[in-house]
Design a protein that fits this description.
The protein has helices at about 45-55, 60-75, 85-95, 115-125; strands at about 5-15, 25-30, 40-45, 100-105, 110. With about 130 residues, the protein is of the alpha+beta class.
């Protein structure tokens, strides 16, 4: 289909107590090779969910880690050496399996005309609760 290109994405989940396995979605990372190597991430920390699953968790620290993920995806030089890698390698690093408090889900694929719009749609659908502000 002309004008539509393939993309890959993964949902980033917060697993505040890894031993319990409880989690909630906190972001989306999207990569589209055919759209000029588009790579971006959108994140949002639902502090009410965090408090329900792990009272006393440090929301500010988690928010900082999510913001760092966005900066690495954007290629921000201040985000360290990982941010200097080509977009495809940054995507691979951002979606690599992890056993930390922030964990990427499996990689999925789709097609779109506008990867930024696809990222926004996925973010609103998979991360934001209906009552959450954007």
């Amino acid at each position: 289909m002309p004008g539509r290109d393939a993309f890959s994405y993964a949902v980033v989940r917060v697993v505040p107590r890894v031993e319990r396995g409880e989690r909630f979605n906190a972001g989306v990372v999207l990569f589209a090779r055919t759209q000029g190597e588009f790579l971006a991430a959108r994140t949002h920390l639902d502090e009410a969910r965090l408090a329900a699953l792990a009272p006393g968790s440090d929301a500010a620290e988690l928010r900082a880690h999510l913001q760092a993920l966005e900066r690495v995806a954007a290629g921000d030089p201040a985000a360290g050496p990982l941010a200097a890698l080509p977009p495809s390698e940054r995507f691979g690093a951002l979606v690599a399996p992890s056993s930390t408090v922030l964990q990427p889900g499996e990689v999925h694929s789709g097609v779109c005309e506008d990867p930024a719009a696809a990222l926004e749609r996925l973010f609103r659908t998979l991360v934001l609760a209906p009552e959450s502000p954007a």
